[in-house]
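Title: Request for sanity check on Nitrite reductase (NAD(P)H) small subunit prediction

Description:
We are preparing a figure and want to confirm that the structure record we downloaded matches what your pipeline produces today. Could someone re-run it with the sequence below and paste the raw structure tokens into this thread? We only need the token string, no images.
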Amino acid sequence: MTTQQSAIYYPAGEIEEFLPQIGRVVEIKDHELAVFRTSDGTIFAAENRNPHPKGGPLAEGIVSGYYLYDPLYDWKIDLNTGLVQAPDQGQVQMYPVKVENGQVWVAL
């Protein structure tokens, strides 16, 4: 556990554990997160819950560029903001991420 600008960061795993373009479920402090690594190595963490009214996990989505494509509802989600792209609407809770010495840290 480490702090940065009053946010508390928790270890989520080693960078090698997160394969490019594939989501991975990580549990931190009773929060189930979907962690994604883009093809350029950027890491994103989101609540592992689809904002669609019927819900569902996000970790099963497919990453392309900085977007997550949900296979259940065919939704496109911006990994930078968590916003669902038009014509659909909604927003995913995103969490700050940092990588230090090969370790991925997520702030809750």
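Thanks, this matches our download. The first strand starts at residue 2 and ends at 4.
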